[in-house]
Fold this protein.
Amino acid sequence: METMPKETFHKLSPDKKKKIIDRFLREFSTNSYDDASLTTVVKSLGIAKGSIYQYFDGKLDLFLFLQSECAAIKAKYIGHVKRDDYPDFWAYFRALYLEGLRFDLEHPLESNFLHNLARHIHAPSLKELTKQWFDQVIEIMCKWIQYEVDTGHFRNDLPVKSMAFFLYTVSISIGDYMRTMYGLNLEENIKSGKPVYGEQRGRILMRAVDDYINLLRKTFEK
Amino acid sequence: METMPKETFHKLSPDKKKKIIDRFLREFSTNSYDDASLTTVVKSLGIAKGSIYQYFDGKLDLFLFLQSECAAIKAKYIGHVKRDDYPDFWAYFRALYLEGLRFDLEHPLESNFLHNLARHIHAPSLKELTKQWFDQVIEIMCKWIQYEVDTGHFRNDLPVKSMAFFLYTVSISIGDYMRTMYGLNLEENIKSGKPVYGEQRGRILMRAVDDYINLLRKTFEK
Amino acid sequence: METMPKETFHKLSPDKKKKIIDRFLREFSTNSYDDASLTTVVKSLGIAKGSIYQYFDGKLDLFLFLQSECAAIKAKYIGHVKRDDYPDFWAYFRALYLEGLRFDLEHPLESNFLHNLARHIHAPSLKELTKQWFDQVIEIMCKWIQYEVDTGHFRNDLPVKSMAFFLYTVSISIGDYMRTMYGLNLEENIKSGKPVYGEQRGRILMRAVDDYINLLRKTFEK
Amino acid sequence: METMPKETFHKLSPDKKKKIIDRFLREFSTNSYDDASLTTVVKSLGIAKGSIYQYFDGKLDLFLFLQSECAAIKAKYIGHVKRDDYPDFWAYFRALYLEGLRFDLEHPLESNFLHNLARHIHAPSLKELTKQWFDQVIEIMCKWIQYEVDTGHFRNDLPVKSMAFFLYTVSISIGDYMRTMYGLNLEENIKSGKPVYGEQRGRILMRAVDDYINLLRKTFEK
DNA sequence: CATGAATGAGGCTTCATTCAT
DNA sequence: TATGAATGAAGCCTCATTCAT
């Protein structure tokens, strides 16, 4: 049975809900799961510590909720992007990121949280969870790639799962890539509470995506 | 110059040293830096807590020692592999991993620790350190790639640093790749203290490397 | 602005607050700052260790609070004693101690803590703090003495600061003086939790003050 | 029965003995008794920790030895200064400090240790000890003053012990006085191992003594 | 006699969680 | 429902002292 957030949380005013979610996203974006401190967040939010336990079943439940929440929001952006509407995989891939970019610009905190998910993922407390999430992503990517292989666009000399894993690995690294190549320092902004918005970020993201596509196209195509 | 471990530690019987190192490698292989607990290890080793501080300057010193120790051991394996001795980059790359494999089979704990280094890398306590390490690796890989570009083997339509980052990202993922593709569950063995050896592991690693090379060859070559 | 104690502490029942303050005053009155043990106090109070950190920001914060608290209470006693209301400095000086005596009788623990402040003063952890406090006291005393020099009551053949230092040194020794001359053993009472009250103490203190004035009068006057 | 140092210590080469004593004097001159760390000293001396326990019965025994050692050395300087050789007490007093000054210049570490004794004196671990030492000093000073009273040089309207205590208090403050008035920062030199020598120090000390005599003369005389 | 590794108690502090109000 | 004080386990680290070599 999933608890996720308790009813009490949903009954909060949207404003308060948002404030709480945002602050926790910030915390989990700048600290490892085990290092993130409810105490700190609660203090800076000015709400009672106990309230968190009225809203959630505990730290883990809260974290899970954030994850699913972010995923859900993102899904609203990229959910309607269909492979069929694009001439090839890379156009599709690019479109996905372009939608992701809109999500990123309108929900920078959520976006960043998702980009950093991978780093939480080995926390012992999240083991089980992690595996499920990872398996899901891989499965989806397998389907993508299988389709391209079947339609003769992608090479067929390698296990599809290998390619999916490769694509996955590369995809989740795009945050670090931007950091490394373009000197973006999101974490600092996030930590200090400054806005993470900025069209510059959008340009950089798409440039990064194009760099990736350039590389990956040759990796995967026949 | 850094202290790393104190003399005291080096004067321990090889057996005891090994026991301590191994147990800590295990701990840091299954927990994030901040979550790894000296207390737990010390208890399971049956030695006094204070002793650790006779051997090391603290948690960080201990961690750094493990890292440099593992790196030093690995260097003995891959240090003599020279690019010039191989017809192309991939043969060189493969040779590196082949030597790495010997290291892996003979020092599975150390190997695993190194494979998992990346996951410690975002720990707040290791921030500074991490950046240096990362920069070094990228720099080395840049040189590799620059050479191939200069000699006309690699494409030249992309920034070398992009390619280096890509290679880096992919390289450190090989542990996860083996886990994913071949169901290797090292962590469980490590945690439970079971041996991690096995020739099966070697076969798998080289298969993984070949998979990677197959992918990367097309990614990078002209 | 300083935190001193957190709100939490102020919201405790007066009884509990007093119990905690008293016990800590006792601890810091019988131990040097670094040697005073939160653990010991907490155990003897029968409260959880963590609670202290709900009340204060740490050992230093706690110590500073005690100091400012005691100083504030004492200020309520001696604050309204004005030089102008007295014919000469020594009458003023005596009046200050007389008020101090009332404070002492009604707040023996606080009084003792203040008398012993000087002994904490060289604790390495309090270095910075200490210097400020010392400088303040000297400055005040310099003003006192300068006034007497200007009005022709005190000798003018010595640097005012020398005289201030002298007065300071002598003033803070009055606790030891009472111990030495009149066999008062406050510390033992304090440590054992016995009451430190007693009108006898008052008589002794004023006798000590008169002894001091007798000495100092000649030291300072023209 | 007094242990003081064990025979083993006396059998050491004078050089080694001196090195050990000096280093410990430094430690106890810059830290409170409880805060002074054998571990630190032993490390910086490069000798075995266990050795200390071959030389002394423990921290306390070591401290006591240092005290008696310093006192003994100082006694060799001021021991032969006799009241009878001087026209009045202050000439005598000055002569004592002048000899003390020679001691100070030739044994700055020992001198400083003695100057700072007072600050160790309230350490719980030293309680008993302290009282004895203090009583001795007071007793000596009582004799001095009694003599001056008897010979009609000092006032007789105050208990001799009061005056002795006063003289004591003032005398032990001379170190702090130099620090305050003349900005001497011995501690830093001591801590950093730099020499504490310097004729400047001598000049300052005698100036301080003259300041004190100027004050005290009027305090005590008829 | 010298060594220095081992000890383990004790230091301060942080944390997620509970529960009475 | 909201609060936030209380909890106590666990964290890392330092220390004086002991004792086998």
User: Anything to note?
Assistant: Residues 7-220 of chain C form a domain with the Tetracycline Repressor; domain 2 fold (CATH 1.10.357.10). The mean pLDDT of chain C is 86. Chain C has 13 helices and no strands. Residues 8, 11-12, 47-51, 54-55 of chain C lie near DNA strand F (CB under 10 Å from a C1').
